[in-house]
Task: structure prediction
Amino acid sequence: MFMLRRILLPVGAVFALFFSALWLLSWMNPLWVTKSAVTFVRAQVETEVRERAAAYDDAFLAGKAQRLLEAYGGEIAAAKRYLSDNLSAQIDTVVAQVQSGTMPAAEPEAADGHFSVLTRMTNKLRALVYEKYVSVTGKLLREFRIFTGMNAAIFIVFSVMMGVRRDKVKALLVPAFLMLPTVALTGYFYLFGQNWLHTLLYNHYVGYACLAWNGVIFLFLVDIFINKARVTECIVGMLKECVSGLLPG
Result:
């Protein structure tokens, strides 16, 4: 048990520091999180902008120009086609400006005050892209902080328990085993597919599943600390009996 404790204690401490550092970094430098997920953010923004645009009529982009449809109908149609075909470029422009620390620049009207449908539609579209960018990154940061914060707390408690409850190392193997999927999943996605990790975090059902999973781990830790692992050892004993009953002879 001594060797097992010497292995689990530093491992728990390392992951506690890892998730704590990510959680703190998301508050100290939130732009780092959004930049690391720029591909996902851009794709999500484009999806939501297209859905929003499809839900509105011509007044969505045209605004006041809609009232002059008879005079500017051809210009409006041409401008809408242009913006639809160049939506990706407009999104790239806005995302690049925001991530560089500047607000999206509006296209100026003509010096003579000439009514420009394309200019007004471009500015409305950029405003919508910015609105969706703020919404997407806000949700992403929230889910990222919940995910890293929960895991930091779990690993901190586990490490403290490993130091305090030296007589319950065997029981602590249960929460340690339950923590393995989180470690494996996080490690894989951070090394090989960051955007997949952010996609998972952005879906609420995954966040709820992580919360429930960590809740189970926390209950085991509470039992080990307060109840001297009575429930944990009982569950382990029942599992052993079930396994023994399934094995031949």
Observations:
- The chain has one domain: 2-246.
- Residues 117-164 form the longest helix (48 residues).
